[in-house]
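lol ok so funny story. i was supposed to be doing the assay writeup but got distracted and ended up predicting the structure for this chain instead. priorities right. anyway since i did it might as well share w the group, maybe its usefull for someone
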Amino acid sequence: MIYITGDTHCDINIQKLYDFAAKNPQLTKADYMIIAGDFGAVWDEKTLNANLDKYSALPFTVLFVDGNHENFDMLDAYPVAKWRGGKVHMIRPDIIHLMRGQVYSIYGKTFFTFGGGTSIDKYRRREGESWWKQEMPSYEELDEAIANLKKHDNKVDFIITHSCDEKALWYPPLRTRDTHMDVYPENQMLSYFEDIVDYGHWYFGHYHLDGDLTDKKTVLFENIIRIT
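and the output, tada:
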């Protein structure tokens, strides 16, 4: 089975995974839990193994797209491997980074992934220590995404991102009376996929909200949804 949830920020929001595992004792490492960005456990060499141990202790395999709060220097240092049709960073056998612009075939379903996003709090962070410029997707990654999607005739079952397209910002729960959502470059970039991809459902995190924007688009934070 394949499940998906929102940001975990290393151990800050990991408890939802342990609670879910306790309620579902049938889960095994053959089951997958996708985290829609801000995984956060690959952050500091001194705490890396202790952080990853918390995820390896879970009964399922963890897959994640990168968010904006990741140490991209450390992520990029992992060798690139091929897994289920797309490129990954194999952090551990049961912790896998789904890289940008890839299409994976998992249990008969296709998943297009495109992580990254803007840290609106980077004004109080330090580049190379708590913020990395690689958080913003590049045009090279966009070109690779377009090429990989073309191989699949621009049709996938699921799109998994951290941020969202520009149009999504106009739907509740993202658009509320007390929340003004600015448009950032990645929102504009992701809008391209909204225009060209025939997809079944699009899931994303980043906004610390849970809810369905449309019948084909869902923002996630605490909720955990089974998608296959």
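The chain has one domain: 2-226. The helical segments are 15-23, 48-56, 72-77, 139-151, 185-196.
back to the writeup now i swear
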